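Build the 3D complex.
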Amino acid sequence: MGTFVPNTKEQQLEMLREIGYEKLDDLFAHIPDDVKFQGELDLPAGMSEMEVAAEMQKIADKNVIYQSIFRGAGAYKHYIPAIVGSVISNETLQTAYTPYQAEISQGVLQSIFEYQTMICDLTGMDVSNASVYDGATAAGEAVAMCRERKQNKALISGAIQPSVMKVIETYCFGNEMELEVIEVKDGKTDLDDLKAKMSDEIACVYIQHPNYFGNLEDAAEIGEIAHSFKKCKYIMGVNPISLGILKTPREYGADFAVGEGQPLGLPIAFGGPYLGFMASVDSMKRKLPGRIVGQTVDHNGKTGYVLTLQAREQHIRREKASSNICSNQALCALAVGVYLAAMGNQGIRDVATQCYSKAHYMAKRMEEIGFTVENKDYFHEFVTTSETDIHVILKALSNEGILGGQPLDLHRILWCCTEMNSKADIDRVIDILKEV
Amino acid sequence: MLVFEKSRPGRGVSALPKCDVDVLTPSDKDLRKAELHLPEMAEVDLSRHYTELAHKAHGVNDGFYPLGSCTMKYNPRVNEKIAALPGFTDIHPLQPARTAQGCLQVIKEISEALCEITGMSEFTLQPAAGAHGEFTGLLLIKAYHLANGDTQRKKIIVPDSAHGTNPASAVMAGMEVINVDSDDKGLVDLDKLREVCEGNDEIAGLMLTNPNTAGLFDPNIKEITDIIHQCGGLCYYDGANLNAVMGWARPGDMGFDCVHLNLHKTFSTPHGGGGPGSGPVGCKEHLAKFMPGVKVVDFDEHSDENMLSFAKAEASLGEMKNFYGNFLVAVKALTYIKMLGKEGIPEASKNAVLNANYMMNKLKGAYDMAFDPKVCMHEFVMDLSRQAKETGVTAMDIAKGLLDNNIHPPTMYFPLTVHEALMAEPCETESKETLDDAIRVFLELNDIAYSDPEKLHMAPVKTPVTRLDEVGAARHPVLKYEFE
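Done.
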């Protein structure tokens, strides 16, 4: 059996004797018999580190690692500079607790302050929190945050990632906020339907940009429609990589920018851990959920950082808190901070430009071989239609070690390109598709 | 110095090759005009910047971390090695299940192990943290009552000693919180509970930790869960304190209907400075059909092959989060469970309880123990009201004094039922030598409280900064760096 208990059996007995007990079981004597677990847990026997490492390696080996991935749909494979992994492997940063004890947590607090600054810079917003669980829960929290006594209804674009919609629905199942879906027309949020559904009761309008189908929304117009009602807030869910070249949510007029932070330096890792970023205009800062770090000074006037605006939070406000969030995704936020610092201004523009250019190159090549591309203005994802059954297409690619796009129905596929997909890889996909 | 202040235009990391297709840009309508101010840094400067930040932080590797209710046990290095395998990190969550059999096996194996440890029949790994698990568990309870047509069951009982997340989660689930005070032993007051519950068809359920936040195992637990069930409610177990009872008592056997666990506490995955955690939720048979996300089953309805696949519960309440939760955290926890095995898991709890009792007994003379228990579980709560009255030294002052001794303080001012609380959870991964050293420091600080209280009011003095102006930070919030 493996163990991480340092005390030897002799020490355990010595400690017991010192406090007046004979055996370890005596410490559990007050647990009533009717709830005391009898016998042995039905689990395998423990193992040495070497054995467990071999067994877990065997499990990992059962997965297929695709060297070439053309699937996004909410999880995006990007290049992660080596420095990111190196920093987040630092044992201190990795094993520290939430920085409640500010005096010995300045490193963690400063890294969050830097993260908040970078998220604000990318999105054009004034305030960012320290992260939530993922892009979907960020959307759910943002919608819930906009709820007011007389505004208990949210309008959600039907062109958002389906699983994000499901999570928003779950949050609204909880707080009993009403949801209405804005119709999709030609792969985009239908402005006429949005206008028809707007009213005084609407707490917020939520769209995703680029949307699930890769399309750029009429984001500025949607903002104007949303704001034609005074109480209505405008939330944009955005892909942070796209912000290297696309307008910020602020430029489009949004009150909140949220999204999935995974593309910024986190591996796809079968879905997590990722992180959700949430940023807002200044006037909404006291409604943001989760941790926020602020700058201050110590006794001696030295600059330092603390968790702040805690009157919003559950450990102070209990049932009156803006959210129940406690643990967030701090180490992932650190990874994002290192990634953005490593990429820099030019790096993030380059990644975004390469994503954009490669997706457009691939779409053009696919049209040349007979696929119909549904999109007009898009970022790094696009939808194709073809006569051929998608299973045949995806199987042919998979046989060559390529993960094709996300199937939408029997004839439509959502493709994604990032800087990781070389021209040669794209051409190879085209060659394979020509054959099917 | 902030990373932005170290930035020099023109520096950078050579991460990407040149674009190998024609470079295109979006039309002007969507083109970013706002300036970017990301840092421009050489890799060496980045490396040193983050090393400097690490020097100004305190991890489990830096010293003793007896933070109550947080279970800051040692985080085994092998967990990290396994979670970094490309066979786990490079798998797309939307890959066909037949190409991700290893991932499905991880989900299946850890779910089964957690069922056995807690006495539940099913687990979902989707909740990303403890509070997210609470929210999930309450939604399960809500879905159950709604399916029975009990739309009026919206009141949830939460003891006054509960974590703040409990009432906050209840509100997110659309429930109304009924606080029930503890008795003078720090346990659930059965009479008060009966009073609230009897014949009350508005009760949705109860949220409870056992052992509770004072480190005490409630011996009336069966009676408590019976009272709730008798009035038609369900019982939710907050697993924050499971490290005390693994292999000794299971929430399922205590009468709980659903539970959440914290893999980042009990199952040794690191806290990461605040996350990512993982808050899997387990339930008994009668709630299984409402479970969120997907579960792994042994067969694939689309193929004859012997294969693991995903299945959705028939009346699933939906999705708590994208995909399957914080998957790599589950990989780490499974590694830990496999290493400890059926003998090591109860042994961990045994030693967690031993270490807590050892420390409590050694400190008893100098520090008053809240509720003065004969035996505690994995943690104990000191009440410094006496010191505060006699010397002016508060729980906060002692905590800050610990910082100068390279010990992370216990949880302060919690539970709220104890006025000057310091809640210490030593964990099983600390040696007698470490505990003895910490005990010596605690006793010394108590002496200083009586001989030189001013010294503790000024503590800490050896840390990178001294006490910070939190009031000023909240009154004039500076929440990001302002670029020139």
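Chain A has three domains: 9-61, 68-78+345-435, 82-339.
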